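Following the same procedure, the fold was encoded as tokens, giving this record:
***
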Amino acid sequence: MDRLRAYEIFMTVVNKGSFNKAADLLDTSPANVTRYVNDLEAYLGCRLLNRSSRKLSLTESGEALFERCKSILAEVAETEALVSSAALQPRGRLRINAPLSFGILHLAPLWPEFSRRYPELELDISLIDRVVDIVEEGYDLVIRISRSGSVNHAARKLASSHNVLCASPAYLQRHGTPQTPDDLKEHECIIYAYSGDEWSFTDNNGKTHQVKVKGKVHTNNGDTARAMALCGSGIIWQPTFLIGPDLASGALVPLLPDYKLPDIDVLAMYPSRRHLSVKVRMMIDFLVEAFAGTAPWDHKGK
């Protein structure tokens, strides 16, 4: 018995509610459909369908197999698609979420090339700094900036970035340059909402130093924090993917060189490694290729 064919026939019978209708759809005879279902029941050692002259109904075993067969046949179709020409031209809508600043600076320039490669794929891109729920909010792929991956979802690392404490030359000229993390208590700090006001550093000996900072400006947007720092309003710490060019040009000056902030990863996250659709796989491979090698934002100012 061809079990895969038997599963397909069983699913069609259930979906159509009739052996005859299933036979018509599958372009075979009702007798052949009946034989496959009977052979499948014999192989599994249980009844899958309750048959009457008026209708068919699933047994408890049949219900369990029906639900499992959905995944089995979907996975087979996915595998076949990977090695077929259809895999080269994914279709449908791809819902992507990414942080606002990273999405504008480093992802937006990539979308035209992706659309050129895969013209039949529709992109639905949402830029939100808060952490979204991939499954609940219906995203196919999420770009996340994180010190670690999610335990609930699969992830592929795209790149890394350094966090750097810095300020403008004008601010440092007016207020002086901090020499230790504790000195930050006497400075005006621009507080990024997702980092909070307790800043943690590691010295060259591996010792952790935590300091509670204060400031007049709190923001949930990295570009706002950067703009305030460039104007001399205070000290920030932000990733090099946002402030790398400012560090390289000298518009922002790195501080506390003997103390390190935690590095971060840029991750492409998706609900599960199983049943990964062709369109999501294509996007992940495209992003891995785009960010391959040294991250473009890490220059001499890191």
Notes: DSSP finds ten helices and 15 strands in the chain. The mean pLDDT is 87. The domain at 87-161+265-290 is CATH 3.40.190.10 (D-Maltodextrin-Binding Protein; domain 2).
